[in-house]
Design goal:
This protein has three helices and no strands. It is mainly α. It has a domain of 44 residues. Helix 2 packs across helix 3. The model has no long low-confidence stretch (mean pLDDT 81).
């Protein structure tokens, strides 16, 4: 850590950095190959830029319960004269 003038392994720095990221970015970055902290930072910037440039997309769509129709059918039909 820089403020306390402590030395830590680069792997530990990477773990702390990924732990502080928004989970939606951290999960994507963790799937990519990296060996240095600088590579993790570059990957994170790329992921954030790509995800922010996409149009809004709902993360979860609630499925309909099975056996239920998609719309309500009419309960009575009009009589023909």
């Amino acid at each position: 850590m820089i403020k306390c003038d402590l030395q830590e392994a680069e792997e530990q720095t990477i773990v702390r950095y990924l732990g502080g990221l928004d989970p939606k970015y951290a999960h994507v970055v963790e799937l990519q190959p990296f060996t240095t902290f600088d590579e993790v930072c570059v990957l994170t910037c790329k992921v954030e830029t790509q995800m922010k440039s996409r149009p809004y997309k709902r993360d979860f769509v609630k499925p309909l319960p099975k056996g239920q129709p998609k719309c309500n059918p009419p309960t009575s039909f009009p009589q023909k004269n």
